[in-house]
Amino acid sequence: MIHIVTPENAHLYKDEMEQAYRLRHRVFVDEMKWTDLAKPDGREIDQFDDEHAVHMLYIDDGRKVLGYQRMLPSTRPHLLSDVLPQLCEDERPAGPHIWEWTRYCVEPAHRERGRALSPVANALLSGIVEWGLESGVNTIIIEMNPLWLLRLVQLHFRTAPLGLPQPVGGQDTVAVTAAFDRRTLVRLQEMRGNCQRVLVQPANTMPLYLAS
Predict the structure, then answer these.
(1) Which helix (H) or strand (E) holds 18?
(2) Phi, psi at residue 63, to the nearest 5°?
(3) Is residue 211 one of the residues assigned to a domain?
(4) Residues 110, 113, 145, 105, Cα dihedral to 10°
(5) What's the maximum distance between 2 C-alpha atoms anywhere in the chain?
(6) Does residue 98 sit in helix, strand or coil?
(7) Domain hosting residue 38, numbered range
(8) Domain total of the chain
């Protein structure tokens, strides 16, 4: 199941967030060789892990974190605005209905084998859509490998590149917006064979400054 962690409930997820930061380090530093992110303590944390971030964790019954992703509001500093602005050739998309999807990672043993999404990957993507539909968010910004474009379209996200692919961290990266609606959620539910909710708490859980 997908748990949403914000400053309001972070005290309930101290151990799980530690697991998430270490998973991020294993995936992005050890595996993907993004050495600029390396930390001596093995916890990958950056300037955007602040009170404005929304963390989504896939936690199994044993309280082990098997997957993670982070959502950042486009109305505040985020990766595309402050770290990778060169990926956006036109006016940068921003608004309360647009959030940036970052740091997506899944434990190696729980990744897909072939074309189908793994259960963890499906749940993470479904979590974004459920959360968005109930929180007034309908578009995400993604910096990703261009090979993901077709997969997103197949999942019924409506994608639009913001510029041409450029090398980032040793691989081609393109920034896109990906809009979604209930049809996207239905598609993800069809792929996993059930329509059960993946979020364990209300999807409108988000920092208080956004809810006011």
Answers:
(1) helix 14-24
(2) 65, 25
(3) no
(4) 0
(5) 46
(6) strand
(7) 2-206
(8) 1
Under the banding of pLDDT at 50, 70 and 90, the label for residue 112 is confident
Helices 182-192 and 119-135, interaxial angle, to 10°? Answer: 160
- Note whether residue 212 is domain-resident: no
Looking at the whole model, is its pTM more than 0.90?
yes
Contact status, residue 156 vs residue 129, Cβ threshold 8 Å: no
| Contact in structure between 37 and 46 (CB atoms under 8 Å) | yes
Query: What pLDDT, on a 0 to 100 scale, did the predictor assign at position 35?
Result: 87
Instruction: Report how far apart, in Å, the C-alpha atoms of 47 and of each of 50, 121, 146 are.
Output: 7, 25, 26
Coil, strand or helix at 149: helix
Q: Looking at residue 25, which CATH number applies to its domain? A: 3.40.630.30
Residue located via tokens 């199994």: 60
pLDDT at residue number 202: 60
Q: What is the pLDDT of residues 55-104, one digit of tens each?
A: 999 999 889 999 999 999 999 999 999 999 999 999 999 999 999 999 99
- pLDDT greater than 70 at residue 108: yes
Q: Which residues of 107-132 are buried (b: 16+ CB within 10 A; e: fewer)?
A: beeeeeeeeebbbbbbbbbbbbbbbb
